[in-house]
# Entry
Amino acid sequence: MKILHTADWHLGKRLDSFSRMDEQHLVMEEIIQIADQQEVDLVLIAGDLFDSFNPGVEAIELFYKTIKRLAKNGMRPVVAIAGNHDSPNLIDAPDPLARASGIILIGHPNALVTPFTTEGFSVIHTDRGFIELRIDGHDYPIRILHTAYANEIRLKQYLGEEKEVQLNRALAENWLKLAETYCDNKGVNILTAHLYMNKIGTPLIEEPDGEKPIKIGNADLIYSESIPDQIQYTALGHIHGFKNIGSAQKPVVYASSPLCYSFAEAGQTKYVNIVNAVPGKVATYEQIALRQGKPLFRKSFTDIDQCITWLTENPETLVELTLKSQTFLKAEDRKLIYQTHSGIVYLIPVVQHDQQNTLNTKEINLTQNITTLFTDYFKSKNANQAPNEDILNLFREILNS
# Structure
């Protein structure tokens, strides 16, 4: 059985003022093509389907069109769970229509899915947090333990806990109960969740830059050791870089986001993960790199001409640009940079000061020319760096206004 595992689509996400919708359309098309070329039997989307609780119309339309094509009109099951960026109710809302197309949308942790049948598969058994599917062409079922984004508040509501509950313990107990009840070695057994999960004794994984954090202290830290032994593969969402925090025998995988969504991810290769699983054996997987989307670069220059040359040679990029110089960036240089490249997200001018050339404390002569006084003041606030002509002209304009 072949499973395509993807996560963290963040449809509708922007990079500062830059829309990523065009890139998201392209990468969704790429994922559809991979699913068809690989002839996968099942698609798992492990949360953060959208970037906000109230996504725009274009993001919602792209999501529905993508999962409908992935499902091939009910011939291939698609299971999508909510992440911490998603509104659970929004994800659940189209459930009756989604099921008719072979799509299983799960907004809340411990959700109960209604059994149904399409031309290509059947949901033959369900429980809270569990579904079992029989896919045409396979003489064994696949069991999926599913946990949409869960925190202590949601667990109290959906696991029936009235008291304060430790997230790690509650999830571990619930998963173990489901695995012992339903997951024997006569079917494929997997878990999908959108959680911050880490292995005991290993360095904590850094959460995505600029994202809503899941882990606050250790209250929301889930350990991979909580996953039941019966589970052959765990499909995670939340961390944007590809990572197996499990082992070769028991993969526990963050598939990665489909695009680089912050400059902390600059240079990362993004993937979908193709999982091969049969009952009673170790699941294997193959990463398939995604090629769509503009690359993100963090570039630093000390020379304007070198900067302009690089920008000219790399037009289809998004750039965080740092310019280091001994003087403040001139207005004409700033204008030239923006005219050269349309993908400059951040422009960061840095004045490099001579540490040995500091301004000594001295008595201020208030009878000096006002421009001289301003120059001395400016140098005192900027490590003895004198204002350039643009700043002086602006100061003169203010004086004369």
In short: The mean pLDDT is 88. The radius of gyration is 27 Å. Residues 21-37 form the longest helix (17 residues).
